[in-house]
Specification:
This protein has 95 residues and is mostly helical. Helix content is 87%, strand content 0%.
């Protein structure tokens, strides 16, 4: 749920810039590098805090990296869904 809110707010703020980048052929990862970096940063901080509090550090770190991977995959999937609807609205003039 948090990942969805982060992706949607990122798209609302940057929809015109992302549309221009899509028109010029940028890949999904290069268009959304700030989004991916923010997800990595937020998850790295929470993994570090959880690992320092709990004594079983290796399990927490592996579980945290798994969650990070899943969130990045969800962000890329949401990128495709939201970008298609957002860009069609921009073309139609419904912004």
């Amino acid at each position: 749920m948090i990942t969805y809110n982060i992706v949607v707010s990122y798209y609302e703020r940057n929809k015109y810039k992302l549309y221009i980048k899509k028109l010029f052929g940028y890949s999904a990862i290069s268009r959304n590098i700030l989004l991916i970096l923010s997800l990595v940063l937020v998850n790295t901080i929470s993994i570090t805090i959880a690992a320092s509090i709990i004594s079983v550090k290796t399990n927490i770190a592996i579980f945290g990296l798994l969650i990070l991977f899943v969130e990045i995959v969800i962000a890329i999937l949401l990128d495709r869904i939201i970008s298609n609807s957002s860009f069609s609205k921009i073309i139609k003039g419904e912004h």
